[in-house]
């Protein structure tokens, strides 16, 4: 019962973490009664050319020099990757290391598994996008918990 509850809580936090990584930081709201100035990244009106210091927007209105927000969609998650992620997550839970409150400790766990944080985050994102991978990760976590 405990193992199932732990795995469920883990998957829920895993999903929330992946969502948080993709969300932009919250913007401050002006006090009531004050107008909010237009955002700087708003495209210029159609009748005006873009300023000289900014490249024209891409085909979907996005800036062509904007940093890529999502992981590589072609990243392949192997069984070894799933096992490493599961071991990292179970060890983090056992040691009560949270990636948000103790990023150095969490990064140390990731490195101990032979992975860099960027690779971990890309794999995490790829797993979050694929329900089959999520299920396989869930099963691997349960297996690790049973062996403990």
TrEMBL record:
Region Disordered, annotated ranges: 21-81
Biased composition (Acidic residues): 71-81
Keywords noted in UniProt: Signal
Ranges of Pro residues composition bias in the record: 33-59
Signal peptide: 1-18
Annotated protein name in UniProt: DUF4168 domain-containing protein
